Amino acid sequence: MALTGRTALLAALGSIPVGIWDPGWTGLLAVNAPLAVACACDFALAAPVRRLVLTRSGDTSVRLGEPADVTLTVTNPSNRPLRAHLRDAWPPSSWLPGTEVEASRHRLTVPPGERRRVTTRLRPTRRGDRQTDRVTIRSYGPLGLFSRQGTHKAAWTVRVLPPFTSRKHLPSKLARLRELDGRTSVLTRGEGTEFDSLREYVPGDDTRSIDWRATARQSSVAVRTWRPERDRHILVVLDTGRTSAGRVGDAPRLDASMDAALLLAALASRAGDRVDLLAYDRRVRALVQGRAAKDVLPSLVNAMATLEPELVETDARGLTATALRTAPRRSLIVLLTTLDTAPVEEGLLPVLSQLTQRHTVLLASVADPHVSRMAASRGNTDAVYEAAAAAQSQSERHRTADQLRRHGVTVVDATPDDLAPALADAYLALKTAGRL
């Protein structure tokens, strides 16, 4: 069989005649001397790794589930061509499972004094900051027999933002908001508390909306129309304590709460309300205040990106005190926390009156859809026991929610997929009732 390439070269070098065979070391070295010389030359001709200059460019932020491209520019200042294998190392959560080897390894050739670019495509699987580890380069000689290897630091950070999957509900919620805001053809009494305009009375209008002075000045009955009040303050409070770490499906409860908070913030900022964010467990984890309407959503997304559940019990008194300092005037406090009996009864209920006497309070909680499926299961003994346990859990949540409602709190309890639109509907209902 014919030999080609590097294999043929090694065979040729190993078969060069050297005269009389000496079974000792001298003969062995004499036979391998040409190969050793070739390897030494190959090593000497490999471009030096440490003199390479590496710079980065590309994406600095990406939504979870979307790809991010980071470009690495390799400059070769030496007088030898660079033939190299390159590994661009990132944390394991920067890739989809099983794709790291293909995505992080590159081959490149850089002529002397020139530069080349390689692009690493990241597909992060978790929120937060992903920072590059190191770049390992293996430089080969022209024969590929020997190589030089070294590592470089080329710092770069990609911030992985919340995916905001509930954005798809925003158009329908904005349509409802436009109806409340007086931009549709029909305006009715009771939708807000700010006077908007006058129009002619039509059968079915609330007689309390008739403006008798305006009616006296014209030949038809005039009614007042109303629109929701603007420039109201909304404080979204994310509980980042122990209960937010519980996983519902593939993600912790905190992620579903953040998604609901983003939809609410997008809707409220379009309604002309001011939205702030407080993330708290035993201390402040994130605080966003005083942002203009166009900057609210980017600021909240950026602040939420690095939030992680903390495995500590939330300090309800500290949370309440911090919320009151953050919202000194009457506001809507949206508390995204748990409806589990113990944390509510032992932590939140004793201090709840401090919030409700000054603010309107809306509590939203993530329900586990698996519990509902368990409650409906039947067929064998195990399924019946699971159904009984699920029914008891649901009964406790309903009882806790009823306790909160008796204290004047609006409660939203929904599964991760339904929490964001349900919270937006609750906000619109409060605006409709003039409670903001």
Automatic annotation (TrEMBL):
Pfam families: DUF58. Coiled coil: none annotated. Residues 198-372 form the DUF58 domain. GO terms for biological process: carbohydrate metabolic process. It comes from the Bacteria. PANTHER family: BLL2464 PROTEIN, SLR2013 PROTEIN. This is DUF58 domain-containing protein. It comes from Streptomyces aquilus.
